[in-house]
């Protein structure tokens, strides 16, 4: 993990918000795009930066690519802690938990 890539990835507010969503659930590009005022290709570019920095990983499942937080990454551990105390991050994490719960109900 190159530290410059991590700081570049964390410098963007949408990328930090994406990390908050991924902290509670695996989500596809389209599921993330629904929560932002930007296109799926724009979300894909943000996800690419996060993946390149080692903060998220992806896995193809059928026609979807699901993204998840790399939980063993120290930066993600610190970011997760910050989201717990951050007034902006807390609601995103709650929404993400609700998404994860709905997904569990379907399976």
Automatic annotation (TrEMBL):
Which residue ranges does the record assign to the HTH arsR-type domain? 1-89
Q: Which UniProt keywords apply?
A: DNA-binding, Transcription, Transcription regulation
Q: Which domain of life is it from?
A: Bacteria
GO terms assigned for molecular function: DNA binding; DNA-binding transcription factor activity
Q: By its UniProt entry, which PROSITE patterns does this protein fall under? A: HTH_ARSR_2 (PS50987)
Show the CDD domains listed in the entry.
HTH_ARSR
PANTHER family membership: TRANSCRIPTIONAL REGULATOR, ARSR FAMILY, TRANSCRIPTIONAL REPRESSOR SDPR
The record's NCBIfam families line, in alphabetical order, gives: HTH_metalloreg (NF033788)
Q: What is this protein called?
A: Metalloregulator ArsR/SmtB family transcription factor
């Amino acid at each position: 993990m190159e530290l410059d890539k991590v700081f570049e990835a964390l410098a963007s507010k949408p990328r930090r918000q994406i990390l908050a969503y991924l902290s509670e659930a695996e989500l596809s590009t389209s599921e993330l795009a629904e929560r932002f005022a930007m296109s799926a290709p724009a979300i894909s570019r943000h996800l690419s930066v996060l993946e390149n920095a080692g903060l998220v990983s992806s896995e193809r499942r059928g026609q979807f690519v699901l993204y998840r937080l790399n939980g063993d990454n120290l930066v993600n551990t610190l970011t997760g802690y910050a989201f717990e105390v951050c007034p902006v991050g807390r609601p995103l994490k709650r929404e993400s938990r609700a998404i994860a719960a709905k997904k569990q109900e379907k399976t």
